[in-house]
Amino acid sequence: MTYKTDLPVMLPVKPREPEPFLSLTPWHMLAIALLTIIGPSIAFAQSGSEAQSPLAVLMNWAPLLLKGFIFNLVISISAMALGTVVGAMLGLCQISLLAVTRHSSWFVTQFFRNAPWLVLLFFAMFLLPFEIKFFSLTIPFPDWFKAILGLSLPVMANVSEIVRGAVRSLPSGQWEAAESLAYTRLQTLWLIIIPQCVKRMLPPWMNLYSILTMATVLASIVGVNEVMTLTGQALASEGGRPDLLAPFYGFVLLLFFIYCYPIARFTVWLEKKYAVIT
Amino acid sequence: MSWTPAEPMISLRDVHKSFGDLKVLKGISLDVMKGDVICIIGPSGSGKSTLIRCINALNDIQKGSIKVEGQEVNDPKLDKLELRKKVGMVFQQYNLFPHKTALQNVMMAPVRVLGQDKVKAEEAARALIKKVRLEGKEDAYPGELSGGQQQRVAIARSLAMQPDVILFDEVTAALDPETVGEVLQTIKNLAEDGMTCILVTHEMGFAREVADHIYFTDRGVIVEHGPPDTFFKNAQDSRTKEFLSQIL
Questions:
Q1: A69 vs A217, A219, B189, CA distance in Å?
Q2: Domain range annotation of chain B
Q3: In this structure, which of A120, A278, B158, B190 has its CB flanked by the most CB atoms within 10 Å?
Q4: What is the value of ipTM here, to two decimals?
Q5: Which fold does the domain A54-128+137-277 belong to in CATH?
């Protein structure tokens, strides 16, 4: 049945097919290849022929850079895990019935959510001691550990907001139904509210993880041996050849892209999937 | 707390409730005996839903007294959980838990709240689902059921707690016309089994058929009440007459 109408709302709705999770066309591949190969070749052509080709140099350094990148991933996963656990608790405090808890957790959340990540990182770096003496036990606080703590602060604040938002987005009827069945507040949260929130929280949570992964390079500024620091060191030890800059940083970009793009696609896919079911 | 079934099971005296400056209930008094089915009718915004939500303490009141089996509800020291074990509620929007199956929806509270044995609770839950004529739908999720079916699961869920009284808050208002009948039939069966029921409803025919007593509320007060026959045939108040003439 078709209607003649100018009103878009009257037209039948075509269900949008969920896009495939990875939709890299050959064109995308070509563009990425150009970026990483053509650029260096031009630079190489200008630097004379007696030096080793930039790609060959890059290949020599690639294993080390990859190791550095894996360190970035370790930092990102640890900071995410820590930030999620603490942030989830903070988020639940934001919906507490106790005004003191609610207001103070709200303040903590807002404070860390509206702070630049780099500043938080500096704070963690320079305020935390390099070791903690616990009776006779000395626990060292290496830089990378401080970086994890520093980066987990904004993650915590953002997770807190994600949790609060997800809980608030559930219809109040769910709370009322649980209340009228004599569930305690804790049971209501644990058995009824949180299980329904997980689905809603997953896409923003993964987005946050992507952002965090890309932010781990900030740790290079405070001297952690992650991929950016190592890239700088590699370039320096090659004598600061300008034709190496593009391939080396291009390589780092590519690593992040290969890791983060599928996460972004997966998030979009999840969002669409849950948007249909609700 | 020496309540006997000879006294009203639920007794409201001069109940006042306001949301901020908005006065919703302005002195409501009514009694419900054990086994009674009472219907509260009235125009939208007259405070009917608020009234029954006060009975299980979903809403608090500012003034007056609500007694459920002798227990004062308007009391800061009230054990709300104990009250709500005795007072079941069914909502307009069903409010089933969408991440749980029909069976889980029904058996979860008895297991988690009353601490019943899981096997026995499941047995009881299956019997209740059968009672509301939804055999075969035990493992369906709420999203897979029609509105009428969901509402019957919600009734079974409330019954599973073995309450002494069930509050029905416009339970057919969100339903498709063709599924209203099945839900009303379920409630009617309950009433015939002797369950004490308080219904807020717009289904006049149903109210007339099952209610023992009808209360008409408007602007936060009870304008008129009586047994259905006298109420519908010989309404005295002009507001009641006007309301009935619009509905019937």
A1: 9, 12, 68
A2: 10-247
A3: B158
A4: 0.91
A5: MetI-like fold (1.10.3720)
